[in-house]
Amino acid sequence: MTSVPLTQADRLPADWRDLLALTKPRVMSLVVFTGLCGLLAAPGPVHPVLGFTAVLCIALGAGAAGALNQWYEADLDAKMKRTASRPLPAGRMSRQTALHFGVGLGVFSVILMDLAANHLAAAVLAISILFYVLVYTVWLKRRTAQNIVIGGAAGAFPPLIGWAAVTGDVTTLPILLFAIIFLWTPPHFWALSLFVRTDYANAGVPMLPVVAGIESTRRQILFYTLPMAAAAVAPWLLDLTGWVYGIVSVILSVIFFVLAVRVFANKASEPKAMGPEKRLFAFSIVYLFGLFAALVVDRWLI
């Protein structure tokens, strides 16, 4: 007996796993971690229940941004191999469902943050959601190769939110944490985009490797590594952290720089599976987790 492919109407309706997929759980994990670290590094006590609620709100806000991103980009996702199986392009969910889910999740996260923490934390959370959806997704992504440079600010807000949830203000250290993620995003994302540039080209998205080519992208990766490393070490140099964070930030930044130099020096016309670009991308995730973990350890031990 031969199987008959399912038509659009025959597909099973969306379930909780599709709703979860809308929130981009892998991206959310990094957002939640940096937000938690911002909260733990902030001076002053915070009630565990309120702290958990604040981190939950950061997660829900990130999930709302991811859902609204997929709602708006359903047509692009359908053209790219790595995103074609998402709920909307795969036909398991309507765009209206994704829109309602994203808006509802976003509004709920901001209101809950305002009630559990303070107005500033809620306001910064709202700005982060709107920035990702309106500035990055709607305005920049389809128009300019600088999309990830400017749009990367959206992923840099969580430490500010976590800090503000505890203190009710924003000072130099959380601003530097914002700068670290903001400057880290281009080399991190461009290292990945070198491997999926064909997908972006097919979808008509002007990512840097598509518009400027591989060589220029490798050069830009190295260029952005320098201010990123400077921002990473700055909290220690400005005496805002102790020696634990200082040593870790220097070591990790040196390793990142060496890997970026290897990417820049690579003359291969196509990135290889185990080439310097892939190694830099993998280490960039370790780099950010390591920096923020060191910040918390430094705060609690020194």
UniProtKB/TrEMBL annotation:
Reaction(s) the record says it catalyses: heme b + (2E,6E)-farnesyl diphosphate + H2O = Fe(II)-heme o + diphosphate
Membrane topology: Multi-pass membrane protein
Keyword hit for Methyltransferase: no
Signal peptide per UniProt: none
Pfam short name (any one): UbiA
Pathway noted in the entry: Porphyrin-containing compound metabolism; heme O biosynthesis; heme O from protoheme: step 1/1
Assigned EC number: 2.5.1.141
Subcellular location field: Cell membrane
Assigned keywords, A-Z: Cell membrane, Heme biosynthesis, Membrane, Transferase, Transmembrane, Transmembrane helix
GO molecular function, one term: protoheme IX farnesyltransferase activity
Spans traversing the lipid bilayer: 27-46, 52-72, 93-113, 119-139, 160-184, 221-238, 244-265, 280-297
Major enzyme class: transferase
Keyword Transferase assigned: yes
PROSITE patterns to which the protein is assigned, alphabetical: UBIA (PS00943)
Note: Carbon 2 of the heme B porphyrin ring is defined according to the Fischer nomenclature.
Function summary: Converts heme B (protoheme IX) to heme O by substitution of the vinyl group on carbon 2 of heme B porphyrin ring with a hydroxyethyl farnesyl side group.
Family named by the database record: Belongs to the UbiA prenyltransferase family. Protoheme IX farnesyltransferase subfamily.
Protein name stated in the entry: Protoheme IX farnesyltransferase
Organism annotation: Sphingomonas brevis
